[in-house]
């Protein structure tokens, strides 16, 4: 870009509305040349693993919070386990690109599923994932590609309104990048946003409640106190400490017999409920809300379902998860790969027939133990097109929502 280049429309609008995004007009602390904003606050973010990023809800927070970490694993492994199918008008005469089965033999030697899992984890954790093309065929379409960790490369706008990708000190060619965003961002970002971005307060609350629970379980919260009832008896801090130590040693080493207190002292148990002190209900609420941000149901986290929203069988639960969370994500990946890595007329899709189970007549399960499931299977068969009217490719696929990208 030359000095004569004019800023792009997005850049001009952003400057006119918000000005420099990270500039702060702050006064130094009294008697010093140090700014509170530029010293203490950035140090707090850095101590919590978020240096250089003032958005608390990002991939770092999602990775360090137990429930969101588990959600990342569930969504990524489920989509990664779906076979990626290649289609063309005449599949028998078409050459399947190498990346469909093994896109990066060096860093992901186990095949496309390992790479998809890593990309989906970035997609949910950071809000975007980046595919970097490393080799091309003679026709210009990708032969191999790999993943650029989202934590190491954040898409940005330059002064001309174009996206730039900087990895370390090197600027990457945007023509070699396939970027897949979770959402449209906030309108100013050049990428999507993390699934946990708006749930950061709940994630921090869950971690704080977990720390409180550890303190309760480890005896950090006293369950009783020794009171001085004699108004004429005064004890200092040292005497109080010695008294507490003697009481603790004797009760721990005792055989369960009654304790004998000297005159002027009284034993008073505290009425705190350990469950309340451990913030169990708060942890459960925060965990369920965070799981909902990732489209993961409570039963997958071994958490009880209260007040309804139950599922009759695993097939129904798997289909719900597939319909409303996994399918939109998988279709977005398939559409991006189809649009940017394949010539016109060819496409890829994720085969999700293993995501939920279907009762079929030839399986030997007549549904006698589950009449509702049997009725669902009968309706599915009634809605399915006759086999004679379907093409060979369609006959090989499971009916219903098992094809993505068509």
The termini sit apart by 40 Å
Shape: elongated
Total number of helices:
12
Helix content: 25-40%
Number of strands: 10
State the secondary-structure class.
Answer: alpha+beta
Reported for the largest beta sheet, the result is: 3 strands, antiparallel
Poorly predicted regions: 1-7, 9-24, 51-55, 361-367, 383-406
What are the main properties of this structure?
single chain, 406 residues, alpha+beta, three-stranded antiparallel beta sheet, 38% helix, elongated
Could you outline the blueprint of secondary structure elements for this entry?
Layout: H1 9-18, H2 36-47, H3 59-64, H4 66-80, E1 84-87, H5 112-125, E2 128-136, E3 142-148, E4 156-157, E5 163-167, E6 170-172, E7 177-181, H6 200-217, E8 224-228, H7 237-253, E9 265-269, H8 274-277, H9 280-293, H10 314-341, E10 347-350, H11 371-383, H12 392-395
Antiparallel strand pairs: 1-10, 2-3, 2-7, 4-5, 5-6, 8-9
Helix pairs in contact: 4-5, 6-9
How is this structure best described in words?
- The N terminus and C terminus are likely disordered.
- Helix 4 runs antiparallel to helix 5 and helix 6 packs antiparallel against helix 9.
- The chain is an alpha+beta fold.
- It has a domain of 46 residues.
- The chain starts with 8 loop residues before the first helix and ends in an 11-residue tail after the last helix.
């Amino acid at each position: 870009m030359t000095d004569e280049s004019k800023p792009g429309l997005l850049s001009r609008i952003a400057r006119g509305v918000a000005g420099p995004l990270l500039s702060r007009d702050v006064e130094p602390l009294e008697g010093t040349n140090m700014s509170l904003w530029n010293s203490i606050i950035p140090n707090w973010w850095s101590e919590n693993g978020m240096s250089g990023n003032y958005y608390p809800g990002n991939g770092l927070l999602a990775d360090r919070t137990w429930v969101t970490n588990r959600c990342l694993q569930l969504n990524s492994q489920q989509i990664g386990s779906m076979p990626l199918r290649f289609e063309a008008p005449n599949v028998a005469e078409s050459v399947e690109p190498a990346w469909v089965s093994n896109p990066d033999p060096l860093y992901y030697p186990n095949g496309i599923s390992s790479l998809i899992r890593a990309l989906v984890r970035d997609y949910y954790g950071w809000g975007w994932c980046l595919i970097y093309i490393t080799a091309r065929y003679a026709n210009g379409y990708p032969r191999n590609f790999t993943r650029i960790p989202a934590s190491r490369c954040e898409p940005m706008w330059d002064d001309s309104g174009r996206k730039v990708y900087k990895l370390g000190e090197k600027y990457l060619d945007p023509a070699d990048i396939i970027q897949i965003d979770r959402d449209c961002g906030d309108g100013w970002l050049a990428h999507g946003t993390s699934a946990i971005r708006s749930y950061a307060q709940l994630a921090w609350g869950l971690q704080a409640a977990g720390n409180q629970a550890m303190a309760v379980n480890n005896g950090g919260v006293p369950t009783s106190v020794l009171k001085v009832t004699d108004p004429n008896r005064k004890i200092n801090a040292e005497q109080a400490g010695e008294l507490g130590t003697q009481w603790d040693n004797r009760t721990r080493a005792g055989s369960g017999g009654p304790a004998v207190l000297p005159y002027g002292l009284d034993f008073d148990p505290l009425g705190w409920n350990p469950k309340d002190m451990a913030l169990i209900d708060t942890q459960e609420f925060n965990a369920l809300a965070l799981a909902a941000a990732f489209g993961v149901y409570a039963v997958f986290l071994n958490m009880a379902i209260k007040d309804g929203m139950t599922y009759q069988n695993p097939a129904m639960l798997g289909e719900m998860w597939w319909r409303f969370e996994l399918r939109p994500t998988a279709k977005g990946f398939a559409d991006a790969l189809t649009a940017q890595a394949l010539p016109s007329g060819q496409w890829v899709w994720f085969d999700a027939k293993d995501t939920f189970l279907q009762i079929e007549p030839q399986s030997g399960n007549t549904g006698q133990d589950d009449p509702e499931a049997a009725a669902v299977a009968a309706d599915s068969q009634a809605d399915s097109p006759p086999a004679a009217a379907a093409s060979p490719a369609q006959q090989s696929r499971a009916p219903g929502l098992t094809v993505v990208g068509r």
